[in-house]
Amino acid sequence: MIPPAETVHWLFATGFLVLGLCQLGETLVGSTVWERRRWRAYLWPATAFGMGLFMWPVMVFFTSSAIHMLAHGVWAQAMMVAGAAQLGLVRGKLQNQLWNLTVPFALAVSGAAFLIHEQNPWLFSRAAFLHHALGWTALVGAGITLSLCVRPRSPVFNAGFALVFLAFATLLFCDRNVAPIFGHLSPLAGTR
User: Fold this and answer.
1) How far is CA 22 from CA 116, 125, 179, in A?
2) CB-based burial of residue 173 (10 Å sphere; 0-12 exposed, 13-18 middle, 19+ buried)?
């Protein structure tokens, strides 16, 4: 039995909520205080890497078309690369700060995948709106994290980075398979 798509979306929304709250907590108290407990430095990258790992079964078992399978595969790889690079930086195995560019790269690739794989217009269905909103949020997040690579101590960019993940969580928690949005639902969208 395959769970409804919103169940899987809600599980990943929980992961994005953890990512956003970790980043927001670090922004509020500062990196020095946040890293007094060494395990906290690993929390964000390990969660991102773990979400990438869990995206693989979603890709294999819960997709119904080739374009969705490719999009989920891209998201899995992007999350794993960004999480692994951040884990390497935290651990000290990676020294070059250019590895921080994996995060904006992952968000840009994920945003493009969201927008490319959704063939319907914004208001076709709630799922179409969700994919468009997530895609553009990821692209804005890529810009914020690119700015964060230039100014890593900026509280504004750090808060923006946290808010991107909290926006992801909010959008995914609001997901339903097929439901009218803004009073409009295409008759082609189905009855579920």
Assistant:
1) 30, 32, 32
2) middle
184 beta partners: 181
Instruction: Tell me the two tokens of residue 96.
Output: 């070059």
Q: State the pTM of this model.
A: 0.83
> In whole angstroms, what is the distance from residue 14 CA to residue 20 CA?
10
Q: What is the pLDDT along the chain (192 residues), one digit of tens a residue?
A: 566 677 888 889 999 999 999 999 999 998 889 888 888 889 989 999 999 999 998 888 877 778 888 888 898 999 999 999 999 999 989 999 899 999 999 999 999 988 888 777 777 777 778 889 999 999 999 999 999 888 888 889 999 999 999 999 999 888 765 555 555 555 555 555
